[in-house]
Amino acid sequence: MVIHAAAQALAHASTREGTAPVRSEVTITIDGPAGTGKSTTARLLARRLGLEFLDTGSMYRAAALIALEARLDLGDAKRIAAAARSAGMRFDWSADPPRLWLSSPVPRDVTDRLRDGDVTLASSAIARLPEVRAILVDAQRRLRADHPRLVSEGRDQGSVVFPDADVKFFLDATPQARARRRADQLRRAGQSVDEPRLLAEIIERDEADRNRDTGPLIIPEDSVVIDTTCMTHEQVLEALEREVHARLGPLG
Ligand code: DC
User: Fold this and answer.
1) Structural domain that includes position 101
2) With a 6 A CB cut-off, is 220 part of the ligand 1 pocket?
3) Which one of 4, 17, 54, 135 is least enclosed by Cβ atoms within 10 Å?
């Protein structure tokens, strides 16, 4: 693991004598398949550590929404990439979690649309396209430059986007546990649930995520792997927080 400019980052910002220095830069990545509780964990970890939170899945979802609205062929990499670039995707960081806006043709907050079934399905298809990934990876790196104290969550954050991250986590769980969690979530939202179908979809999405040529879901060599199958959210969160503090000390 390359400690991301550790000495440099442990810095400058100690304003008063006796105050713990503030790390001006820290990147924590959380990768893993769908249904491991990554998003919730990443958001709560960021809040506990006083860092910002980047949900990169929402960027793939927004690119999918753009493609659906423009009625583009979901295999047409060039057009989707161009449309995603010109839509002016941006986050409102004043909200927790940050909300995603598209600037063009008129500014609008699309966050609530991103979890709909059609967008979820389309996002998995367009995430295979190298041209689309290149644009979003580049956008993610620019976001870190502006938000240098970051917990970034996705599939390729530790392996491709931020290989220099200070701490890399990979959350996993059995497909059965992930299907059960998703089913509970849907039931709580008052929706009907076909659990065997959910399980089949999860297995199918895992296959697609693991086997694509660009940015596949892999376990980065230097990551901390946590199997969350038998753990509560709180236990996972505590394990991550402990690991970060053990490796980096106080973040300020
Ligand atoms: O995490 P999620 O379900 O919101 O992600 C939506 C889709 O985007 C999913 O098919 C995986 C893909 N994705 C990706 O390929 N790379 C990322 N860094 C984040 C998400």
Assistant:
1) 26-248
2) no
3) 17
56 Cα to the center of ligand 1, angstroms: 7
Nearest-atom number in ligand 1 for the CA of 39 is 1
Give the mutation target among 31, 53, 56, 137 for probing the ligand 1 site: most ligand atoms within 8 A of CB: 56
Question: What pLDDT shows up at residue 1?
Answer: 37
Answer whether residue 20 is part of any domain.
Answer: no
The three-state DSSP-derived secondary structure of the chain is: CCCCCHHHHECCCCCCCCCCCCECCEEEEEECCCCCCHHHHHHHHHHHHCCEEEEHHHHHHHHHHHHHHCCCCCCCHHHHHHHHHHCCEEEECCCCCCEEEECCCCCEECHHHCCCHHHHHHHHHHCCCHHHHHHHHHHHHHHHHHCCEEEEEECCHHHHHCCCCCEEEEEECCHHHHHHHHHHHHHHCCCCCCHHHHHHHHHHHHHHHHHCCCCCCCCCCCCEEEECCCCCHHHHHHHHHHHHHHHHCCCC
Which of residues 213 and 252 earns the better pLDDT score?
Answer: 213
In a domain, 214, yes or no: yes
Q: Is residue 10 part of a domain?
A: no
In this prediction, residue 81 has a pLDDT band, given cuts at 50, 70 and 90, of very high
pLDDT at residue 58 greater than cutoff 60: yes
Please tell me the residue having the least CA distance from ligand 1 atom 9.
124
The structural domain count of the chain equals 1
Domain at 168, CATH number? 3.40.50.300
Q: Is residue 17 part of a domain?
A: no
